[in-house]
Amino acid sequence: MKQSGGKDSTNYQAQVINVGVTADEARNIALDLFKANFLELSQQAAEIATYRAEKLVNDTLEKLKQENPSGIEKMKNPDMQYAMYTAQKEFARTGDENLEEILIELLVERTKEDDRTLKQIVLDESLSVITKLNQKQIDILSLVFVIRRTVNNNYINFDKEIGDLLDYYERTYSKFINELPTVEEDTLLEHLVYAGCGRLSIGEAKYETIFKQNYQKIFNFNNEAEIVHLVNDFPLSSQIMKSWNETSLKNMNLTSVGIAIGHTNLVRKAGSSFGDLGIWISG
């Protein structure tokens, strides 16, 4: 099929183009791909969708310039073009600014992968899955990730104060948790399972049990009842412990996609101190 394009546009087919890609060329590639494939809409809806798609591309390129300039070159790869189109399509539908921020973070991480690694596959899947979730569910993934998957090495020794450890968690939770699931809202967690972000097992791990296991040295002389008593002195942690123990959160573990989304949301809201995603997803 013969292709044509306007001034400054880039035409492409299913082959690798072995030339360098500037930011402007990357922008044109992404927008041409979007316009060629997105659903036919009314004029007003099409204008809104195109504006959102263009905003996502521009914001992604700006972040790449700051964090991974060489990643712009990846826009010539069909695999990366598809990832970008997936993000454009989903943001164009909703216009949700929080969603855009997470999509951009996932795309930037995606440009750091040179080969078809497990991390690349998981990031591609996350771009599609995240639009099935609301912000509350995304925050839940971050909460499960923090509690189940992380340990702060600054507080693992005998000489550390328990109060300092619990204060650290209090500060961390406050940066990303706005609402907590109730017993009546277990369908929120069931939907996370449906979306491929988590698993609900028969076995359970109560909040205080996890802390006892993760920080064995610092809690060496405390039984779990005493840990509950200590946590109850910290308002947000106390609420989270109650929600965790009374709902299916205590039965939940994350899949690789749940880890990717939870980690990305956490880094976006709480900072980069939680390490690279590759620590948890490698291969």
UniProtKB/TrEMBL annotation:
InterPro entries in the cross-refs: Vpar_1526-like
Domain of life of the native organism: Bacteria
NCBIfam families: LPO_1073_dom
UniProt name for this protein: Uncharacterized protein
Native source species: Alkalihalobacillus alcalophilus ATCC 27647 = CGMCC 1.3604
